[in-house]
Design brief:
By secondary structure, this protein is α/β, with parallel strands linked by helices. The chain has helices at about 5-25, 30-35, 40-50, 55-65, 70-80, 95-105, 125-130, 140-155, 175, 180-195, 245-265, 265-285; strands spanning about 110-115, 165-170, 200-205, 220-225, 230-235, 240-245. It has a six-stranded mixed sheet with strand order 3-2-1-4-5-6, with helices on both faces. It is elongated and about 70 Å long.
Length: about 290
């Protein structure tokens, strides 16, 4: 059975197309809502991908925007239908994180900066388990097993066709923090080096002696997609998860990521540093 295309990304694609049609007609969200006899928030949610469009919504919007081409109308209908599909992650209780998994599932590339832990797509099961065992509020053992299962399925994006292009920049502190103990950490760093051998994975580390940089108090992912799907910045922390997709924010985070790459060690130097720290963890475990 073929894999379901990410309904999260289908909603964003449809929303981007609908917003473009509205702008071409020179209409405001309020004007569209008035003509469709609905609330402006409904129109806005459809355009941002946070709300689903019904077949009737698509029919009425196509009529309003003078979309008469049958192929185009069918395209919007298909996107609306796919946006309601059930994907594999919907069978897990992921709460707000489900939206990110849906975006990640169809992303063409991800640029990730992490200052404290190895990113989930590059974690070993033992490292991931150690992270989930210290969450607040605590997770039940079966919940941890579910999260680990989700993480393994997410990691398939790095090996399936088409492969996800992943570029990660880490602070050096990530390598030294012995999550799960020195044995787990040593194995994690071995895995990290192994993953850098993949042509679609790049890892760089910002060394301690690089000094200050513009993302010291942040962690973020910049996700890009094919076609008309707008890019998005994902920022997470204890206060929650934030998604940014306006052009000003995207430009700012791209500039920051470029500066981080420039401050970081080159990929080969990064591998050498990871190997050096891995040996330190090995010695600590004896």
């Amino acid at each position: 059975m073929p894999e379901v295309r990410s309904p999260t990304v289908r909603r964003r694609e449809l929303g981007a197309l609908l917003r473009a049609l509205r702008n071409e007609k020179g209409l405001t969200v309020e004007q569209v809502a008035e003509r469709l006899l609905c609330s402006p928030s409904k129109v806005s949610r459809m355009e941002t991908g946070h709300g689903t469009a019904t077949p009737r919504d698509i029919r009425d919007l196509c009529d309003l925007y003078d979309v008469t081409d049958v192929t185009e109308r069918d395209r919007y209908m298909t996107l609306a239908r796919e946006s309601k599909n059930q994907a594999w992650w919907h069978s897990y209780d992921l709460h707000q994180f489900a939206e990110y998994v849906g975006l990640e599932a169809d992303a063409a590339s991800i640029q990730r900066y992490q200052s404290s832990v190895i990113p989930g797509l590059l974690q070993t099961p033992e490292y991931a388990r150690a992270m989930h065992e210290i969450t607040i509020p605590p997770l039940a053992p079966e919940e941890i097993d579910d999260w680990l299962e989700v993480r393994i399925k997410r990691q398939r994006r790095l090996t399936e066709n088409p492969e996800l292009r992943l570029w990660v920049v880490l602070d050096e502190a990530v390598l030294h923090r012995a999550v799960g103990g020195p044995d787990v950490m040593a194995a994690q760093l071995d895995h990290l080096i192994e993953m850098t051998n993949r042509p679609n994975v790049t890892v760089q580390v910002i060394p301690y002696d690089a000094g200050a940089h513009p993302a010291m108090d942040s962690t973020f992912s910049l996700l890009d997609f094919t076609g008309p799907v707008p890019s998005v910045v994902y920022v997470e922390g204890l206060i929650g998860r934030i998604y940014l997709d306006n052009q000003q924010d995207l430009t700012r985070y791209r500039q920051v990521f470029e500066l981080l790459c420039a401050a970081a060690l080159a990929p080969q130097q990064t591998i050498e540093l990871i190997a050096k720290v891995e040996k330190q963890h090995r010695r600590a475990s004896t």
